[in-house]
Amino acid sequence: MRPAVPLVPAGERICEPGSFKVGVAGGWFQDRATGEARLLTCAHLLTPPALRAMAAPPTERAWSRRGPEVEPDGAAPVRSLEGEGARLCLAESGRVVATVLAAGQRDPRGRVRSLDACIAAPEPSSESAHVATPEAAPRVAHARVGARVTLVLRDAAGLEGVIVATDYASGWYGSRREILVAPLEGTRVSRSGDSGALLVEADSGVAVGMHVGEVHGVTVAGVRYDVLACAHHLLDVLELFDLAPLR
Asked: What Å distances lie between residue 83 and 30, 191, 205, 226, 244, CA to CA?
């Protein structure tokens, strides 16, 4: 049974109140143990706890990786409570919509494996302007090389590409198994502020990943790309936070 509180549609721009770091509400899933709704988005849109008292947090910088980084074999993804209590609001109106419960743990020394993701609980509200939409609770599947995909964004269209790799080790937030997407000719599959958006197959609408950034100057299967969109496998993210699709 779906929660009785209003849910922000997948693809809405969100941020912390007063922050310049803008991301995207990826979608709604449910805690496997309790059945409660959880909003999924990227962790890097959160202001580090030590900076939350600042009047104007620093702007987000784009990240780029030019090659894989070595991670310890057998390392399991971990999460932390570093972002616990942070509030997320709609970027346009400032309306608070969720409270962060946990985030991927970033280890700059590379001793642990993690993911650039966080989960949040919905903010109880009597308003009904922001309700769940079908894409907010998508079906989930494994990513496939060659599949044509798009990002779930409510304020943009035509951001499409093709998956060219499913096992790229970016090292971003300690991750080592990313999806890479080449934009279709004449298009751009992602842009600044798209982090957190779900990556779905264009034909079926099945969700396969969560966008986290871009990589530059990467060669895949003998082809060199100037820029590729990079996404975590959605199934990996759901496993980290013990989530399942909403029912």
From this structure: 19, 24, 30, 33, 21
Asked whether the beta carbons of 88 and 100 are under 8 A apart, the reply is yes
Q: What angle do CA 82, 6, 103 make, to 5 degrees?
A: 15
Structure tokens at 111: 């001793």
Q: How many residues does the chain have?
A: 247
- pTM (2 d.p.): 0.82
CA–CA dist 102, 224 (Å, integer): 37
- HEC string of 188-246 equals CCCCCCCCCCEEEECCCCCEEEEEEEEEEEEEECCEEEEEEEEEEEHHHHHHHHCEEEC
Find all residues with CB under 8 Å of 238, minimum gap 6, and list them: 29, 140, 244
3-class secondary-structure state, position 136: helix
Q: Which residues contact 82 (CB under 8 A, 6 or more apart)?
A: 48, 49, 103, 105
Identify the CA nearest to 28 among candidates 152, 174, 162. Answer: 152
Token readout for 207 is 């969700």
pLDDT digits 0-9 by tens, 90-100: 999 999 999 99
pLDDT tens digits, one per residue of 6-25: 678 889 999 999 888 899 99
> One-letter amino acid identity for 24?
V
